[in-house]
Amino acid sequence: EKFKAMVLQSVHDNNDGNGGNDDTNTINDDVCPPMDEKELKKIVQKHCKSLNSFLHHKPIAKHTSAAFEQIVPFVDPSKKIILDSGCGTARSTMLLGKAYPNHTVIGVDRSFVRLTKNQVRKEASDEMSESRDENPRREFSNIISKESSEESQRPFQAVSSNTLLVRAELTDFWRCCINANWDIDEHYILYPNPYPKKNRVKKRFYAHPSFPLILGLGANKIIVRSNWEGYLKEFANSVEYAHELYACKDIDGDGNTTLNLDLEDFALPYLKDARNGPVERTDKAIAWTNFERKYDNVGEKTYS
Fold first, then answer.
1. For the residues 213-240, what does the mean pLDDT come to?
2. Distance from CA of residue 95 to its chain's centroid?
3. Longest pairwise C-alpha distance within the chain
């Protein structure tokens, strides 16, 4: 299966991830009504059609391009890649790295302030520094740790033999991955900011101009987690709307069907799972993120 909406999400990006009252955590369709389906479809299909224009007017940020180029030597070409987008404190990235030792796991966030807050990552770094093996990843990690004043300027950090943390802009990093033809096995998007206010809906991943890039990465699985079931439903619906456009079902201003022969159907691999929609998460053996642990502790429903 290729599209699996799993669960969990915070109302606030800067939530500390500690336990709390489930009434304050919950966001649902009563708190934030679903978008009008026709309006969401219009937004998604517009972004699919205008992707080239969006990319043309948004050059890849230099710091992201530089960070990508620097991590390439640390990415084992014999291993498939797991991408953890918007990884925050990188708890999920570190746990994924341990769970999938035969993959290269890359966590991406725009802020190393968040990336350096995770105890799991610190413990992994300590283990790595104690290793006596000759390892360029360990050596690089030691080098960039020399001065704390440099912490916020690091482009990336190799925290284990198969786990990298990268400071980069997500949209631009995805473009670098596509340009490099990387083989993405799984793509995690955990705790995306839900932007519940109506006037900020276009900041949600599925309503953002970069949404076609998420599909275009070609990951074998896309895993989106949230405690707001409605968010996952609209994400799944957006996959269907993109497929309708890519599958030559574009409707022009006069209501006529026109062909989009120049558009590859990036949504097709995820269509089946998108149509199945999210289901409540029941396997709580591992809390992949601080938010997931928080919701589990207070009995908050999460979905997959």
1. 97
2. 15
3. 69
Tell me the pLDDT tens digit for each residue of 73-122: 999 999 999 999 999 999 999 999 999 999 999 999 987 666 666 545 55
> In this predicted structure, what is the pLDDT of residue 31?
82
pLDDT digits (tens, 9 = 90+) for 206-221: 999 999 999 999 999 9
- In angstroms, the CA 290 to CA 294 distance is 6
Q: Nearest 10 degrees: CA dihedral of 41, 43, 47, 50?
A: 110
If we measure between CA atoms, which residue out of 50, 91, 44, 75 comes closest to residue 292?
A: 91
**Structure pTM?**
0.80
Distance, CA of 208 to CA of 229 (rounded, Å): 19
Report the C-alpha gap between 189 and 82 in whole angstroms: 11
